[in-house]
Each structure stands twice: as structure tokens, then as C-alpha cells.
Amino acid sequence: MITLIYIWEIERKNIFPAVWRMATHRRALKKVPTISFFKLLGTGTGHTFTPRDANPLVWALLVTLNEDSTAENTIDENTIDENTIERFDRENVLQSWRKISVREARLTAIPLSTHGLWSKRQPFALPSNPTESSHAWDEKVLAITRARISWLKNLAFWRAVPPVIDSLRESDGLELAIGIGEAPIGLQGTLSIWRDSKSVRAFAYKSSEHRSVIERTQSERWYSEELFARFALIEVRGELPSH
């Protein structure tokens, strides 16, 4: 299974057309037979995870595509079925976004590990031997975290986030981090790109700020649903946003 993430940057005059596409493209994407999971996403700086972080000039689409070539234990660019990607790349939804965007990036990734659910589903199917694949991969890593925050816990969550974000952005090996969200409040996450798996693990397990929030998340039950997934980042095509 391939995961693709498209990130589009638009001009301010196209904010309303982008919002309209977010509202209407779900139906079209549901009809694409190769898609097993998708999310249309807004983005933000990810500094506080409050609505003021939102960036109305950058939007994203995450999709997982069904294909058989990732069934092998070894993950590299040779395991990707380019035909599957290129066929999807011609879909009308993508062409519609390109009409209003000034810049596009496409990330191609294969999951290495995943924990939790997204909209009550596990969207990322692992290779046949995920442990072996994870240990063998030592190139760039894409990490996605997302959570459905319990409504009454939003204020506590927002107060706890800034130290973790500061620690994240100071982490050795971090190349990009942006906030992602399905809604301005309550359905939020982070997309980050790292130099290698070692860098991700160092932040996840050695950052005292991150460990503290994880412990509070469990004890105070901030989330009604959460997911953390790590991917082998096979290719980045185009220009990523600067924030």
C-alpha cells in the first residue's frame, strides 16, 4: 500500500475556491477505486494547535492507494508501482487543485509502523514483515500524528502543547514540521519529515517535554482517538512549504 500526500500553496484570492474544494471533493474521492483511505486537510504552523495557527494558503490531501508491490520485506524506491501513482496523479480532483495552486509538493511513502486509529479505521497497511522493514530503513522518515481531542480537554491540551512544539523544532534531524487538521478545533495533528529513524526515536523517547505530555495524555484522557504512524519517505516531488 502506497501513501501519497499532496500539499498545495495558493494565492489569497483563491481561499474561497480552496474551501469549496475541501467541502465538495470528498464525494469524488470516494469514487476512485484505488483509494482505500483519504483525508482532505487544512494546515497550520502547529505552534499552539489553536485556530490562530491555521494557514489558509496551504492545503493538503492524504491518500492510501491499493497496490501489491509493497508486499516484499525490503522497502525502497524499487517496491513502488509507479503506474499506480501516475494513474492517480491524473485524477480530476488533483487537476482541480492545480488550477488554483501556485506550488505543489507530492510525498510518496510506505508505512513502517503505525499505532491507533483515524476515524475508527487503521488506514495504513504495513509490509509483510514490518519489524524487519523498519529496522532496515535508515533514510528519510515521514511521521504523522493526529488526535481527536475531547471537547472539554481542549484548553488543557492547548496549554501543554507549546513546550513540546519548541522541543520538536529544536530536535536534531528535523527537516520540516507543519500542523494538519480536519477542522479548526479538535481534529488536529502534525506532519514531520526527519533525516532518519534515529532522529524520530530520539525526539519520541528522549524529549522530557514530549514524555510529560504523553503521560498526561494517558492519565487525563485528552484524546478520544489518536494515531501515530511512521513511514519510509521514498520521494519528495515539487517544493515543500517553508513553515
Tell me briefly what this model is.
The protein is α+β, with helices and mostly antiparallel strands and 243 residues long.
Could you characterize the architecture of this molecule?
It is a single chain. The protein is an alpha+beta fold and 243 residues long. It has a single domain (2-237), classed as Alpha-Beta Plaits, CATH 3.30.70. It has helices spanning 15-30, 82-89, 92-100, 130-136, 154-169, 197-206, 208-220, and strands at residues 2-10, 35-44, 54-65, 101-116, 141-149, 174-181, 187-194, 223-238. It has an eight-stranded antiparallel beta barrel, surrounded by five helices. Strand 6 (174-181) and strand 7 (187-194) form a beta hairpin. Helix 1 (15-30) runs antiparallel to helix 3 (92-100) and helix 5 runs antiparallel to helix 7 (208-220). Residues 69-73 have low confidence and may be disordered.
